[in-house]
Amino acid sequence: MKPQLLIALSICTVFSCAMSPAQTVKPESVAKTEKTKTVAIVGGKVLTVTHGTIENGTVVMSAGKIIAVGPAKTTKVPAGAEVFDAKGMTVYPGLFDAETNLGLTEVASDQNSNDLAETADEIEPQMHVADAFHAETVRIPVERLNGITNAVVAPASEDSIAGQDSIIQLYGRRDQMLMQRDIALAMNFQGSVRRKGSSNGPSKFPTTRMGLASQIRQAFFDAQAYEVERAAGAKPDHKGAPPKRDLKLEALLPYLHGEKPVVLAAYESYEVEVAMSLAKEFHLKVILNHVTHAQDVLDQIASYHVPVIVGSIYDFPRPDERYDAVYTLPAELQKRGVKIAMSSAGGGEGGDRNLPYAAGYAVAYGLPYDEALKAITLNPAEMFGLGDSLGSLDVGKTANIVVANGDPLDVRTSVEQVFIEGSAVPMVSRQTRLRDEYMPLTTNKP
Amino acid sequence: MLSGNTPSDLVIQNATVMTVTHGTIQHGSVWIHNGKIAGVGATVNAPSGAKIIDAVGKFVTPGIIDPHSHSALGDDVNEATSPVTPSMMMIDAFDNRDKALYQALAGGVTTELLLHGSANMIGGQAVVIKNKFGLSRDEMLFPNAPRSIKFASGENPKRVYGRRGEVPSTRMGNFEVMRQAFEDAKAYMASWDAYNAKVAKNDKDAVAPKKDLKLEALADVLRGKLLVQIHCYRADEFLTEEAIAKEYGYKIRAFHHALEMYKVGDKIAPTGTGIATFADWWGFKDEAWDAIPWNAVMSMREGVRVALKSDSNDYVRRLNQEAGKMVNYGGATEDEALRMITLNPAWIIGVDDRVGSLDEGKDGDVVIWNMDPLSTYARVEKVFIDGDMFFDSSLPGFGTTHFSGVMHEAGFEGSDDEGGGL
Fold it and tell me: B38: Cβ–Cβ under 8 A, 6 or more apart, which residues?
């Protein structure tokens, strides 16, 4: 069954068919429903994330915000509201992907379309992904059709300090999409960022983890010294020219002050420990990333009291590990009280749209369902400081809402409608247009 | 080939049995006798001494079959020194202790086609394995499986040779290299025909032509002795490949990747060529730019035989989920979806008379799942191959029943199309 928008008070009057082919020719950037309108999603099973599941629930949005959430019996549909009939469907908050390269790459094999990371230096905090973010990427409409409404855009993990992340919403003009730039610092303490040399270039410092660690420490010390020098230079009695502005060192200061989080990637147990000791030395506010092969220090990770973006759950176990050593990791961390998020990074060539299935896979291996849903909604929103506006169906939050024909974490489920900031997003992408163009004329529409 | 501890009679009972060929049986049983399926149904006539596995609440399917894998071939996937290398035998690189095989087994995969990479227009000859992880190399070979050969087309060959300033560097070059190879093979075959004709006439002066492994392999393609498996993405290239096959008189068994088949399914369906495609991979290279996740179902609706495959040490562990996506992307029925990872890939490999469904007489390759395998939440509990259990998730350690010792790191982490592989 396809969802339909109905006008309240004129029951069963079809206002518009959200999926009718005639509408799919609209450009992907144009909303069918203006966000100023009031829309009520009625009759669905509502997964609020913060206050349980409402079997027959009503969610009302207006001016881009959620204005009511509750059981149908007690939640009034405002007069004049458009009604979206979600009977038999599941309603849940838009998914939040804790690590993507959205807008930084189009075709992976085409270098001209890639702005993934500067690699001339290991320490690149002055690189802002917002400066490269390509809002018109074909990828964003593709991903959002599966219910991804928000994402962290991060540089590729090719440097020990790779740059600063942005948070986006996956709809709107570029300025609407770029919700917050420089929201976190992307750091990587892992073997793959060493400069061992390859066909692309010769080896150079740092070729070892010792080198990585010392280089990171030096960078933070330099930033601290720069700050002192800058403060001195700003004093009225300072003689001579103020110190030259150093964008690289300046970029590290908010992180040294603990004002913003550092997303600290490490895979192996010892990498996690070394990285965390560095973070502790400089009082960084840490979000750990990956910890894929840190099964033997999970209690210690819990003792850090930092959130973790775990996985990819699809990372390979080592040859001496059981097949499910990584599948069980989200559950094992959550069990220890760690706040976890999951991301689509490392999820393969199917794209970021497969994020919910990664969470579902964690459920198969022991993560409670509600925690899995949180790991791709509220938890990442909170980790990046957006828990007040995103990640759950609560009054006052941004109306990023997904309606699907079943369990959002199941591969068999189809998303029927995505709302972002209260707008019904056109359920079209370059891929649906190709599908419709080549749809076999002699057979049923798949 | 029975292993030492195969029970002579094994019955898995009270399960939801997904047969693939004749529907799903609630509270059904599967009886395996001496490694072969002897009965499938609401009841089976197994002898009283049969080993019984009560599978209440569980789902039973045939073993999952991956028709496109580069696992267990170390770093030897591509002999990328010439665009035509048909005498390369992948069995010579087969490492039966590769951890990727174990991880695939834990995902219910019982048969794999291990293919040469896609660097060459005409690559090497594949090896078909049964995933009897822990047994010897020889014991893991699929007995009497047909021979397959890997061809490629499009971006990979032209990139590999083009960047060395060699032919091919274009799609024109790609196909020219192929045609020339078959012309060489025809000449070679003619020289042998002439020699054999002389021998038949007792011509004492007949001199045998030199045996040439490469041309011998190409001749076997022309003789129809090899199943031709072609790495091919674009719609125009399917048509060109079919035209060349027709010109030289061989059949194409399947296009692999085949991400644009939805554009020309009506033209390919009558040829009988199948496809082994990804569920939803897209955009990682130019020739994957028009990929859409509805490709498999749309092509199926046009009459093309469709299989899903991994081309990846990662995805091979969860082909059941890839099949599940087909319910979403195009509304495949559960039977249709399951067929894409069982019977249809079995056909592509040429072993569909032996595996790929739960039918009497077929090999006892059976997976027990904790729930519907098309769900994200499905886990493999037990895997039987030829009636012998090779994996049991309830066992401590690896959960393997035949493996002991040390696994090998996967030499090749996955797809030869993810960029780093070539």
Answer: B9, B31, B32, B44, B46, B360
Stretches in chain A below the pLDDT threshold 70 = 1-35, 200, 440-446
- Domains in chain B, ordered, with CATH? 63-355 (3.20.20.140)
Sequence letter at residue B244: I
**At A382, phi and psi to the nearest 5?**
-70, -40
Residue pair A336/A299 in contact (Cβ under 8 Å)? The answer is yes
pLDDT of B190-222, one tens digit each?
999 999 999 999 999 999 999 999 999 999 999
Tokens 């499905």 locate to B378
The dihedral through the CA atoms of B127, B131, B133, B138 has a sign that is negative
Distance CA B415, CA B309 (A): 11
- The residue with greater pLDDT, B390 or A195, is B390
pLDDT at B238: 98
Task: Quote the pLDDT of residue B380.
Answer: 98
pTM for the full model?
0.93
Tell me whether residues B266 and A106 touch, CB distance under 8 A: no
Query: Which tens digit of pLDDT belongs to each residue from B244-271?
Result: 999 999 999 999 999 999 999 999 999 9
Q: Give the Cα separation of B12 and B28 in Å (integer).
A: 8
Residue B294 has pLDDT above 80, yes or no: yes
Chain B from 253 to 292: CB within 8 A of any A CB: 262-263, 265-266, 278-286, 288-292
Distance CA B109, CA B123 (A): 25
Whether A350 contacts chain B with CB within 8 A: yes
Q: Which amino acid is at A439?
A: M
| Residues B113 and B70: beta-carbon distance below 8 Å | no
Domains of chain A: 4-94+399-438 (2.30.40.10), 96-383 (3.20.20.140)
